[in-house]
Amino acid sequence: MTLPHARLAEAADQLTQQLARLGSPKRAAWDRNYLHSDLTHLGIAIPDLRRTVTAARRALPSLTRPDILTLAGIPWSDDVYEHRQAAAHLLTQHTRLLTPADLQIIEAMLRTAHTWALVDTIAVHAAGVIALRHPDDTGPVLDRWATDHDMWLRRSALLTLLRGIRAGNPDLNRLDHYADAMLDERGFFIRKAIGWTLRETSRRNDRFVTAWIEDRLDRTSGVTLREAVRHLPAQDANRLTAAHRTARQARPSARP
Description:
The chain is mainly alpha-helical. It has 15 helices and no strands. It has helices at residues 5-22, 25-35, 46-58, 65-76, 81-92, 103-113, 116-133, 135-146, 151-160, 162-166, 172-182, 188-202, 206-214, 222-228, 234-250. It is globular. The N and C termini lie far apart (55 Å).
């Protein structure tokens, strides 16, 4: 049975009050600078935040899908970073309840996150779980994200693939298409995401990653390459790195 909205609002209010008591001004300043964030920061270590969220969830009766979506939506609605992290962790702790239809809510969260620390949690651990369970229903949504004007959605399209990659069920066609389409972008977070997904893929399929990079050495940024070759066999990593260096020297305008 779905809980009354007032009960969920009260639980969310209690959660934010508990988080407020855990804050550290010194850590808040450090987090704000590290994340280049324009959100309000309380300064809470992630393990402490997770424990607080878990305790708040366990204080409630068994939650339904509407319950968890409502409960997560309340703290997300303000501009406090830790409140939004709490919302993200509420979703990731209840992924068994989430359906492809919930990607609409997740998309709205990704569009308003404005920092990788929120985007990555939601994309990998919420959207990624849904996509792994329901590939046919979620594929068109990810395809749209991959070409969206919002950089965080494009990054999320890549990172959502990580759950399947790590589970040994990679969507190599989408990885190939998304990464190739974004490879010429200059933004650090896109370059890093391409390298990250390739790096994780290489743990099980180093041949795919080696061939993929080799075919695109003249377009691959240094950031992407360094991530992508990290777990390749040393011989392949060294060869690709040297070839990339040569390609950069041949093109003075090549990206760093």
